[in-house]
Amino acid sequence: MIYTISIVLDKRRKKGNGTYPVKLRAFNRQLKKDKRYPLYIDLSEDEYIEVWKNPENKSFRGAKKELEIKLKAIESRANEEAKQMTVFDFDRFENRLFRKSSDKNSVKYYFDTIIKNKMDDNKIGTAESYKYTLNSLAEFIKDKKNVNIEKLTFSLIDVSWLKEYEKFMLDKGKSYTTVAIYTRTLRVVFNVAIENNDISIDIYPFGKNKYKIPRTKKVKKALNSQQLKTLYSAETLNDNEVKCKDFWFFSFACNGMNLKDIALLKYSDFESDKFNYYRAKTLDKSAEKTKITIYLTEFTSYVIEKYGNKKKTGFVFNIVSEKDDNLTEYKKIKNYTRYINDHIKKIAKRIEIPNDISSYWARHSFATNSIRKGVSKEFISEALNHSSMEVTDNYFAGFEDETKKEFANTIMDF
């Protein structure tokens, strides 16, 4: 055992009435570090010895007996919480010790804890997705069970509960994709609670012969070459549309570069006729960091010259600022993405190309049109910074399906 739990009298500072604070001490032998947690009990040295260090054969009544029982309960619970941890960690120990006893079975407690951890790690988008799931679960149990989310426990969620939740979502017009996203998130929360030994794996409702999360094939929407020509030459009605169209094609021309990466692009990333960057979406997901290189063209150079800041220092585009904190930066990028999408949709509607187009279509359009031009699978994988060749295969699979459809429609053209 690498830790020791004990009740101590903290004699580092004596109070005016001659007492000292009683504290719970946790000592990590490996780190040779201890932390003391206040119990908001004050005793004199004699009282501490009498109540806590008294011989086993001595018995109390009244207030002293209640105090002895209380201190033993605190020490016992602290040892139990420490024992449940695979690796002793002071922060986790503190969180577990001072939470309510009901929190270990509380779905909301676990969601709130994970959301806070994601925010602390600057994974704001992930934290937002957990919030959306929690809100959806709260809406369901309020509507169907007339129960507040604070009362939802892991033990209440079984296969039939999940099937009812799925039906509730579909009846509200949500897609199977949304159901899958939310139930996958809930599954992660279950797994975290099980790993923390707060709930039993026996109540786990997912997996073989249990609830099956809907599997949906993500449709990678893209413009074909003719649609790209139509959009590129489309008439714009104002400066906002000009700007949004320029940035959409800047993303396309930079191998489907995500708008977040465009917003975070710095002049220090440039080197002669190219720039290098790390994809923000995958940067924390792999120990091996892959740098993406984009060679400048006449068009991308034009966009940088037109919209880049004139000092040519810091961020290239005035989307975010060096002074922004993580949350402000996240909100600015989200608003800018919405701004691009709103205006590109208006243009698309007028020229009769799919008007559900978004900035993400630029990435898929780059991949699809590269495939049509005969570019190798390896090049596509590297250009899009895919985590594996299997991810790239999805693009080729979609392209092959389209090719089969075209072939079927022309088979009778003798």
UniProtKB/TrEMBL annotation:
User: What are the protein's UniProt keywords?
Assistant: Coiled coil, DNA integration, DNA recombination, DNA-binding
The record, for InterPro entries, names: CB, DNA_brk_join_enz, Integrase-like_cat_sf, Integrase_catalytic, Integrase_recombinase_N, SAM-like_dom, Tyrosine_recombinase_XerCD
Question: Species lineage, top-down?
Answer: Bacteria, Pseudomonadati, Bacteroidota, Flavobacteriia, Flavobacteriales
Task: Specify the protein name.
Answer: Integrase
Q: Which family does it belong to?
A: Belongs to the 'phage' integrase family.
Quote one Gene Ontology molecular function term: DNA binding
Domain Tyr recombinase, residue spans: 218-408
PROSITE patterns xrefs: CB, TYR_RECOMBINASE
